[in-house]
Amino acid sequence: LIEKALLGKLIVPDFSEFTESIEKIYEIVKEVKDGENASYIPQLAEVDSNLFSIAACTVDGQQCDIGDSDTYFCVQSCSKAISYCIAVEEHGIDYVHKHVGKEPSGASFNKNFLNPDNLPHNPMINSGAIMIAALISPDLEMYKRYEYVKRYWSSLAAGARVGFQNATYLSEKDTASRNFCLGHMMMDAKAFPEDTDLDNILDFYFQLCSLEVTSKDMAIIAASLANGGVCPMTNQRIFKEDTVNHCLSLMHSCGMYDYSGEWAYSVGIPAKSGVGGCVFLVVPKVMGICIFSPRLDSRGNSVRGIEASKLLLKEYTMHRY
Ligand code: DON
């Protein structure tokens, strides 16, 4: 990093200016108090609604953050992007997409329907992510599968601690009729690989949604995706570039639920949100950004996450077109 700085070859040469913009945006967006914590998973309603942070990491390792960026939050649906990459690494896209589509569903993330091929619409919504959970290392015992995925998360975050929110996991499991219903619908449609144990897979899916990271670490994870699968802090390759490109394409078209079209139109870069309040953005070949604030809009996206992204994109033209 120092060498690149000395040679004037940093990917964002005016990073201090960028940091100042982030700080300005943080102060403006902090005043936004709209939205409410997710409550359909009871434990998420208990999270302090005022928490707010923005963190960024470039593909050459420059970092900045502001607000509650060391606070752990529950990744929820942000896990879907990482789980998809893991499944694609293991099986390749042909096999993975025999079990899950690539089209936006145009409906809420837990809507009860399948595509015309009787498959989940895409891996970024609940049905698709439950399917992906069934594809991840099906021969490993359940406790090993969990550890295996958690190791990926930690490597993407340069070895950071990745935690688990047991209370969130238990409260989701207790109230997950909708996901059980989606699972049974897919079982009925014979969409899963043979021998899938649905109860185990749903449990695994809830576990993956209950992982916790900090915003600083999530920004590094996003930067690893921006960097084609190589963690910028350790230079370790974690995913193949192709795998990441497939994931980013799906994040671009499906990552923000039924707001994905508007997002692609107005913000124009791949992103993924989760009902824990995280939105992470990937600016390919430049940086990863994590915005965390638990209050959500009616679609389940963080209100401040969307506001901050819009302001940021107004100042820095990251829109791809
Ligand atoms: O399955 C659920 O409803 C949550 N564990 C995750 C939902 C979420 O973050 C929004 N979804 N795609």
Topology:
Layout: H1 2-6, H2 15-30, H3 42-45, E1 53-58, E2 63-67, E3 72-74, H4 78-91, H5 93-99, H6 126-135, H7 142-156, E4 163-164, H8 166-174, H9 177-188, H10 198-209, E5 211-214, H11 215-226, H12 241-254, H13 260-266, E6 271-273, E7 278-283, E8 287-292, H14 303-315
Antiparallel strand pairs: 1-2, 1-8, 3-5, 4-5, 6-7, 7-8
6-diazenyl-5-OXO-L-norleucine (DON) binds at residues 76-77, 109-110, 125-126, 172, 179, 209, 274-275, 300.
EC number: 3.5.1.2
Catalytic activity: L-glutamine + H2O = L-glutamate + NH4(+)
Family: Belongs to the glutaminase family.
Describe this structure in words.
Helix 4 packs across helix 5 and helix 6 crosses helix 9 (177-188). It is globular, with a radius of gyration of 18 Å. The longest helix is centred in the first third of the chain and has 16 residues, at 15-30. It has helices at 2-6, 15-30, 42-45, 78-91, 93-99, 126-135, 142-156, 166-174, 177-188, 198-209, 215-226, 241-254, 260-266, 303-315, and strands at residues 53-58, 63-67, 72-74, 163-164, 211-214, 271-273, 278-283, 287-292. It has one domain: Beta-lactamase, CATH 3.40.710. With 321 residues, the protein is of the alpha+beta class. The protein contains 14 helices and eight strands. The protein has a five-stranded antiparallel β-sheet with strand order 2-1-8-7-6, sandwiched between helices. Strands 3-5-4 form a three-stranded antiparallel β-sheet. The two termini are 29 Å apart. Keywords: ANK repeat, Hydrolase.
Percent of sequence in beta strands: 5-15%
Helical stretch tally: 14
Average the pLDDT over all residues and give the rounded result: 95
Shape: globular
The second-level CATH architecture is 3-Layer(aba) Sandwich
What is the first-to-last residue Cα distance? 29 Å
Tally the beta strands.
8
CATH class: Alpha Beta
Present as ligands are: 6-diazenyl-5-OXO-L-norleucine
* Largest sheet: number of strands, sense, barrel closure: 5 strands, antiparallel
Which residues sit in consecutive blocks of at least 5 with pLDDT less than 50? none
